[in-house]
UniProtKB/TrEMBL annotation:
Keywords: 2Fe-2S, Dioxygenase, Iron, Iron-sulfur, Metal-binding, Oxidoreductase
Keyword Lipoprotein among UniProt keywords: no
Organism domain of life: Bacteria
Species, as recorded: Lentzea xinjiangensis
PROSITE patterns per record: RIESKE
Protein name stated in the entry: 3-phenylpropionate/trans-cinnamate dioxygenase ferredoxin subunit
An example Gene Ontology molecular-function term: metal ion binding
The keyword Metal-binding is annotated on this UniProt entry: yes
Stored InterPro entries: Rieske_2Fe-2S, Rieske_2Fe-2S_sf
Amino acid sequence: MIRVCALSELDNRKPFAASVDDVDVVLVRDGERVHALADLCSHAAVSLSEGEVSRKGIECWLHGSCFDLETGKPSSLPATEPVDVYAVDIRDGDVFVDVTATTN
């Protein structure tokens, strides 16, 4: 696990781009939980961190595919392949991500 940021640096339901061991990730805070996904839409290869977060997940700004924050699975076309979801741990107010452990 690698420390990425302080939990206080994350705005609720606003994407936050980070690089963890040369892997681009997008963090999304949802209350006291934090989700970490690959920061690359599986359809168009653009950054998901530039999209918006809704109740359905994170939406790609280019074509509107939406990815579930828990599973990385797309809930809308044109994407059909999931994005990687990474393990997150919050310790002493800091957010740690393990890009070697995908949860999907």
